[in-house]
Design a protein that fits this description.
Length: 58
């Protein structure tokens, strides 16, 4: 039991570092700034027939 506590505490201490890591994502600029459109066209121009038929009958 004491071994596990020592192992967990040592991993927590080793996981913390004094050096600050810089975020490299801020430095990267996208090559092209394209607008992203998700599911707009399928919702606007999708199925316009809104007949709700019970049990899928024709």
């Amino acid at each position: 039991m004491n071994k596990w506590i020592v192992v967990i505490l040592s991993l927590c201490i080793l996981g913390c570092s004094l050096e600050k890591k810089e975020n490299s994502m801020k430095d990267k600029n996208p090559a092209t700034k394209k607008k992203v459109v998700y599911q707009v066209f399928t919702r606007l121009f999708g199925n316009t027939n809104t007949n709700n038929k019970s049990w899928g009958t024709v």
